[in-house]
């Protein structure tokens, strides 16, 4: 997580700008991906409007003791240096297997050439890597349950 004071300061600015209650509990702050460079690239895609979705394996959330995101939930996105940069609202959650991800969701992820083929190639490698780090090897990628999250950007800072 990013430094508490900078997240709290960001939340006050973002909440005021987005019409949320700045005195409400500070939303969870998190970043995309597993490297700073990829986190920065994906955050830039969110801020540009290219990225409006993300996927996480259900096993990863369970291993980390995290809940499945909920529709309407706010999140603060941090960059690769752990600085808060954007406020998003989850608009839709679906649980699907890896093979059930469709071209529309792959495009919403905003990565590579936006194709389903590119999504599958990049995410197969990613899910296998992050799950292996948690001692959870993937035996059947095609049936791996994923949390597919759609979101909207409410506020961002350079």
From TrEMBL:
SMART domains tied to this protein: ASCH
The ASCH domain, residue ranges: 30-155
Matching InterPro entries: ASCH_domain, DUF984, PUA-like_sf
Organism superkingdom: Bacteria
Name assigned to this protein: Uncharacterized protein YhfF
Source organism of this protein record: Microbacterium invictum
Taxonomic classification: Bacteria, Bacillati, Actinomycetota, Actinomycetes, Micrococcales
């Amino acid at each position: 997580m990013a430094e508490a004071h900078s997240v709290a300061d960001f939340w006050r600015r973002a909440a005021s700008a987005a019409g949320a209650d700045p005195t409400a509990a500070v939303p969870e702050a998190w970043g995309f991906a597993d490297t700073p460079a990829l986190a920065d690239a994906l955050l830039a895609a969110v801020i540009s409007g290219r990225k409006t979705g993300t996927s996480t394996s259900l096993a990863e959330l369970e291993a980390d003791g995290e809940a499945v995101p909920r529709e309407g939930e706010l999140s603060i996105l941090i960059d690769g240096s752990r600085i808060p940069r954007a406020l998003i609202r989850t608009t839709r959650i679906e649980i699907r297997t890896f093979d059930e991800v469709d071209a529309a969701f792959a495009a919403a992820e905003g990565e590579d050439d936006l194709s389903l083929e590119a999504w599958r190639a990049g995410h197969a490698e990613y899910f296998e890597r992050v799950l292996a780090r948690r001692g959870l090897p993937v035996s059947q990628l095609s049936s791996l349950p994923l949390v597919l999250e759609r979101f909207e950007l409410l506020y961002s800072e350079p």
